[in-house]
Amino acid sequence: MNEHGLLPFTALDAEHQAAVRHVYESSFPLALRAPWEEIIAGRPDEELLVLLDDGSRETPPVGLVLVRHLGTTSMSFLRYFVVDAQRRGRGHGSRLWSTLVDHLRDQECSMLLLDVEDPDDRPHDSPERRDDLRRIDFYERHGVHMLAVREYAPPDHGQDGEEPSLLLMGCALAGSGGVPRGPAPEGQALREAVIAVYRDRYGLEPDDPVVRTTLQASRL
Fold it and tell me: How many Å separate Cα 157 from the centre of its chain?
């Protein structure tokens, strides 16, 4: 366990690992869910970290995060951030977030990026749209900005062939405390962030037409 209370998935026993898998698979539709075998593959540029109920290995998992460090940059990408549905609304999400931010600062990570589903791509009164808005609100309350990125179109990464419309969010991790307070990245910093996400998260090089379209539409 690190000093912030996060445990590597590999440090858990089989029972806790099975519980973590259930939390993950019950929290995302197939369109947004990578196969479990990919999640636990142990890529050298990824960390699968788990927060337990009171920091003890005897308690069930509260949530998990899967973070990919983006190539040789000091930026990281939050692939998954999950709190057990049975424990939501009790402050566990804020606790998981603050421990993650502190953990990344300890690793000298300068920026955390993530993508979310676009609520405007949903029927106005749909529960999915409400979930999207709730998720965005959580991140914004915890210091993450909706970035000025247009035509953001990562390739499909779920399991059913659907390509959900996504938006890019991010925050600088300078400072202290569990909620980043810095301004949204812009200009050259934002351009470098977009390129890093496409290249090191989704495998698209800067000269790929998808990447070029995003950069041009975003005036980057």
Answer: 14
